[in-house]
Each structure stands twice: as structure tokens, then as C-alpha cells.
Records
---
Amino acid sequence: MKSSRAATLSRNWHLVRFAVVSSAVLSVPVLRLPVVVPAVALAQKAPATDAQLKAEVERKIGDLKLGSSRVTVSVHDHVVTLDGTVPTLWLKRQVIDRARKTEGIAQVDATIDIARAESDEKLAAEVGKRLRNYERYTVYDFVDGRVRDAVVTLTGAVTMPLKQDEITELLEKTPGVRDIKNGLTVLPVSPSDDRIRTVIANQIYRDSNFINYSRVNPPIHVIVEHGHVTLIGIVTSQIERQKAEGIARMIPGVFSVNNQVRLASEVQGK
């Protein structure tokens, strides 16, 4: 007699069947032996109580190290209510996100406030400082914006999606920012555009008119999209403004130049 087939184990564990089949003698019956699984193995996990859910949400929020900030948690019928004040938008979103991801939570209602900055002017100054110090911010990016009622509105263009994400997180972690309206454009990937922006920037900052400027904090940013160049920034003289535009127009592959460079005297006069 040939060897028997291997046992087949039912995935749901309700019934385990072990079959011995003989292919040599057709009259030999198939033996099926039912095995009863203990009831404890079939029991479903009891749903967490509101008290258990409250403790779990508080544990997850506690991992954020909120410091002196305080967020209160209440749970009723698996609905979480979060209340309190935190210093940053990033912390607020983390608190809400961790509550939502807690197993057994059906809904999250949040009335979490963000501690207000002293003024929009001081908040704008802090936002600008953080953007200037952002390590990936280069002469090929330009970020502008405004602050109104602690809401930051961003405009401009960056060369990588990563920069857009990191800038957003950077401002979310700025104390006092209540919300961010991100209007940044991610420039398309283009070897031709890469060549154009590199050549323009190199020629501008090698020119004798710009030897006193640093590319770490450049006065002119070079934005290139499909061969169309935009120059943005602030310089001290009309000669510098005209020189930058002249350099850009002479580069092969450039279809147009939009010169938005302003004079420092014009900006200060506003």
C-alpha cells in the first residue's frame, strides 16, 4: 500500500480533519476523525471598556512628552474627546492621530488649542528665520508667505517633494503656528532645467557685481520650470538687477525670463 497523504489543518480551527486514503485498494474507506477544538480557543476577544480605552489613549499621548502642556482625555461609548493646550500644531496633530489609531476607538472629537504667539509680527520673524536656516533651502528654491492670525500661508517653489514635506513639518513644530496653508509648488524633474539653473546661478555669483554676496543666503534665487526662468530676490542696485537678467537671457535653452528682483530701497520704502 502506498503512503497516506498528509493531514490538512482547517484555518478556522473549527474542525481538524485527518484523512488516510488508499489508492491501491478502492474498497478501503476514507477515515475521518473529527477533533473538537476547546471553546476557549473559539472565544472572541471582549471589546475594551471606555476606562480601558481612556488609559490606552493617555499612555500613547504620554509618550509624546508634552512637558507642561496638558491634554485631558475622556471616553464615552468608544468616542474620545480631547481637550487642552499644546505649544505646536505638530503636537496637536500627533495627539489626535494617536487617539484615532487606538484600537476600539470609533470617533475622536478634539478641542485642543495652540498657545498663541505674542504677535503675528514676531511669529513671522521666527518663521522666516527657520526657513532661512533650513539646510535644504538653496538658491534654486524660493519660499515666501505671510502670517495672519497665526495662520501661515506659503507660496513659492522647491525642487523636491521632500523639501515641501520637511518645510511643512518645520513650521508645524514652530510654537504659535495655528495652521498652515501650503501653496508651495514642486518643480518638475528635468535634466535640462537642472543644467539651466546651475549655469545661471554659477555665472551670476561669479560675476564681479555679486562677489560680496554669499550663496548660503543668496540675494537672488533662480527658479526654472520647463526652460522658463524666474529671478526672485533683493539687491542693492539697479545694475545688479539688470546684470542678473542679462546673464539669464544669454543661457541656451532659456525660453523666457521673469525678473522679479527688487531693489532694497524699494522694499524699505514700503
---
Amino acid sequence: MPITRFRREATPTLIRFLADRCGGVAPILGLGLVPLLGAVGAAVDYSRAGAIRTAMQRPRSTRRR
């Protein structure tokens, strides 16, 4: 599908979606949940990477056997 045809067909739909004020809670919640879960996942990965990095930098002589 050429981009011009897509733009021509999608623009009215997008305008109707943005103008509609009925029952907008569920779609907005659904759209907002995606980046929120992505940010939470990134924060968990970042904190785990920091913990692993700290553990790797700890000298071997201080580790208990």
C-alpha cells in the first residue's frame, strides 16, 4: 500500500478518533499502559545490571566461601 493511500485513508479515521469524546477511558488506559510497562521493565533491567556490576567489581578476597 503506497504511503499516500495510507495517509488518505487513515487521516479521517484518526481525526474521528481524536474528536470522539464517548468512552475514551479504556483506549487511553490501554495506550498509556504500553509505555508505562516498558519504563518499569527498563528500570528493573537497569537495577539488576547495576547489582551485577557491583557484584563483579567486589574483590574476590572479601567474598565468603
---
Amino acid sequence: MRVYFLGAGASKAIFPLLPTAKDLTLTSLMEESYGMPQPEIRALSRFSLDHPSLIAVPIEEVLDDLESDPLRTTVLTCVLRRLAIAKNGYPQEFQSWLEDIWENDHAVLTSNYDTVVERGIGNLGQKFKIRRGTQLSKMEDIGLIDYGFSVEGDHVDRGFRPIRVFKLHGSISWSACTRKSCGWFERGLHAGRAENALSGDFQCPKCHSPTEPVIVPPSRVKDCRRPFIQTIWERAKEVLKQADEIVFAGFSLDPSDQHINDLLRGTFDQSTTKKVVVVDTGAEELSNRYVAVYGRIVERHNQSWRDYLARQCKGSRTRQSQSHSAR
């Protein structure tokens, strides 16, 4: 089995306007071209004037300084909106990659909040409709995706194998009821629910209590103890231990992200992984971080995720052509 571990660089390779962690700053959040509400922009502008040293630093450091500040909610709301994608213009190589994952039962792990992978799978679902005669309404209703945890209303008997997508830090499209006894939870393919929950604009349709986003905020110190998130991490451990090969795409393996480093080291010690591939435009610079975890089995590809997928897709077509010719 192959496990793909996607970072922000992988999403940016598909949709260039999406930011990486270093792109997310107060300055970038205040750019009106991204559709931020004017009240939020004004609040961020006032904060920036009072804290000029924080204007250009990664938003993770800003949120650490705002732990008990009301502006923290404003910053998080802007981050969630900045990560939304407004179109479905997926390259063919990305869709072919997702189809290969489905056909070969590979798995995707990601630290990203965005919905790039889920929406791509939604597009793939339209193709399955033709192939399988499945009647689609909302994609989540037929369970194309195994998110690593189940909630009330999940379809267990899908009639086909879902694609495993384990989002280690939650999603911009997830929200949950704040009343624990209620148990309501929403997962969709599109952005918005986490942002609406954070701003108080959406109530639980089941018990009318407030809702909350299901994300691990992008701060230096990440709290992954929430039950839903913990379950995802346990599933992630399982697939990493079973992986013959792990492909890291657009993921920097920041030494300060202790949770991820502990996850990778702990599972590798109990795995039979024989190959680790690092795909990034800065793969050479990042390689030492991966070698420190995986040793000599690390292979580097100094290119973007999209270019890597295009190359893999071309190689697959060539092999298929040669196979047909041999017959």
C-alpha cells in the first residue's frame, strides 16, 4: 500500500492562489482581492499598526500571541476564508491520481485544512455515476470518502470501497454541535461551515445550540486532543505502519511540529516501509529532515506536485501502450 502525505505546497501546486504556511501573514489576509469582509480587514489593520513586528511573520506565531485576545477569532475566520477555493478547474493528472488511489486502495493523509482533495474526489464521483449507475445527491451522502471517523447518518453499506482521506488538523468544511450529548457533525466537500461556526452564524439543525469549527488552529503549539481528531490520528498510525511506500508532497516536515515528527518516527519504527519519496520544489533543502526520520530509503524529486503527477501520468500511459503493443 502507498500512503500520500500532502502539505500546503501540494495544494498550491494545483491551485497557485492557495497559500503555504509562510504565505499566511497578516499582510496577505488584508488583501482585498481575496474577498475578506471590510470589518475584519479594519480590525487586522488596527492590530497591525499596534504590532508592526507581527505584520510579515507566519500566522502561526501571531495566533500564539493572541491566545486570549478576541482578535484571535477574526484572524482564524480570515485564515479559513483564505483557504477556500472558488472553482473546480482540476488538471487531468490530479484526477488520474485520485482514480489510481481508489483502484489500488492507497490512502491520503494531510495536514491541510483546504478541500482540494475532497472536491477532486467529488468530481471523480461524477465519473463513478456513469460507471456504476450510482445516484448522487450530495457526495458525502454516498460515502465516497472515509474520513477516519464515523458520525450519525454515515452510510456504512456503500457498495464500493471509499477513498481514505485522513485530515490530521481538521477541515474548513467541518463543524460540530457544541453540546456534546447532541452529537451532530457536518462534513462536506465545500468550504464554509467552519467559518460560519466560528463567527456564530450557524446553529445546530438538530438541537439549535451553537456550532464550532473542527480544526486544530494553525499555531506553533497544536492541540490534537479533540475526540474526532484523536480518532483520525489513530487511523493515520494504522496506515503508516502498513505502508510499503510513503510519498510526501509539498510538506516541509517542520522540526517545530512535534506532533507530526513523533507520528512519523513512532510509526516507522513499527512499519515495513521500504521507500519514502519527497516531492517538493525545495526537496534538496528538505531532505535532511526526512533522512533524520527514515534514513537511506529517502528518494528526492525536486519538482512541484503537479509536475510530478503529470510525469507519473505520462509514464503510466506509456506502460499501458507498451503492454497493448506486446499483445
